[in-house]
Amino acid sequence: MPFPAERPRRLRRTPALRRLAGETRLSPADLVHPLFVREGIDAPVSIASLPGHRQETVDSAAGVVAGALQVGVSAVLLFGVPARKDAAGSEAWNDEGIVQTVLRSLRGQFGADCVLIADCCLDEYTDHGHCGVLREDGSVDNDATLELYARTAVSQARAGADVIAPSGMMDGQVGAIRTALDGAGFADTAILAYSAKYASVMYGPFRDAADCAPRSGDRRGYQMDPANAREALREVSLDVAEGADMVMVKPALTYLDVIRRVREAIDVPVAAYNVSGEYAMIAHAARAGAFDERAAALEVLTAIRRAGADIIISYHALQAARWLREE
Ligand code: PBG
User: 141, 132 in Cβ contact below 8 A?
Assistant: First the structure.
């Protein structure tokens, strides 16, 4: 038997060689921590479906951000859970609303050290749980909703958001928000567009955390069909043309091919949202003894980076940052 001349294993021999030859790097600076803040509670509330995560108060949210900065994660994505919901979701653009209050508090305490990203949508604020206002037949009225996203974005920018992240998948949302921000004097506020957001079962635990499951129907009339990838490229180019500074693919794991194609098609930063259900699968499987959570989470996050994501929003962000520092 001839011995093989090509020996890829040479570069796998030691951890130091593997690090040197590694094609993909994962670092705490790539990660964004999703942060839920709830109005009307005086202590954090655990989220059963997302082990280790809580709905925070205004004060406890600051503690979470301080901890994130300590491990090298310097961006958070804020979601609000208001005390009062109505058909239009009017708490979303209340200058004294929960997200606005937390934005002012974090901006005051951390200055420019932490990138404050505000999710801009109505589903956490509407009593019916949809991402926009409804017509009589129960469908979401695209253009009436744009007006409300614009108000919400301006209110969030006024409260100190660095980045507005529209997640409702309305047509024209990026353009409407860009125009409103510019008109209100917030030309420097950036937009991270949830461009290719699929109608996924993987948002289950989030809907529990943010109390925003639709009371009737589903989101397939506005979120993307999991069967489509070319359509994601179309969504992404529309958003970039409307002024998106960064784009997002969501979820991540079942759409790695889409992340790759988007990364190759455009040159703005690409974010991937490693969503609540993806976190829950790993957290619960690890708790059931299927595998080690650390190894599983780092493998998943590395795979999302390898697919082409520059930025990863993940419920494992803080733990992963700690694990990466130990390596
Ligand atoms: C909508 C929004 C959702 C998520 C982020 N923004 C919920 C949805 O579309 O149902 C899901 C995030 C996750 O599952 O981690 N505001």
Answer: yes
Give the C-alpha separation, 163 to 22, whole Å: 32
Give the Cα separation of 146 and 118 in Å (integer): 16
Q: Tens digits of per-residue pLDDT, 198-251?
A: 999 999 999 888 888 888 889 999 999 999 999 999 999 999 999 999 999 999
Q: Once rounded to an integer, what is the mean pLDDT over residues 65-85?
A: 98
CA of 203 to the centre of ligand 1 (A): 6
How far, in Å, CA of 97 to CA of 133, rounded? 19
Rg (CA), the chain: 20
Its domain, for residue 264, covers 26-326
Domain assignment present for 13: no
Respond yes or no: is residue 85 known to be catalytic.
Answer: no
How many structural domains is the chain composed of? 1
Is residue 3 a part of any domain in this protein? no
User: Ligand 1: which residue has its CA nearest to atom 9?
Assistant: 203
- CA–CA gap between residue 117 and residue 110 (Å, rounded): 14
Q: Which two tokens stand for residue 194?
A: 């949830």
What is the residue whose two structure tokens read 């040159």? Answer: 267
In the block, residue with structure tokens 């390596």: 327
In a domain, 20, yes or no: no
For residue 283, being part of any structural domain is answered with yes
Q: Is 56 in the pocket of ligand 1 (CB under 6 A)?
A: no
**pLDDT digits over 77-135, tens only?**
999 999 999 999 999 999 999 999 999 999 999 999 999 999 999 999 999 999 999 99
105 three-class SS: helix
> Is 250 part of the annotated catalytic residue set?
yes
Report the CATH number that the domain containing residue 42 is assigned in CATH.
3.20.20.70
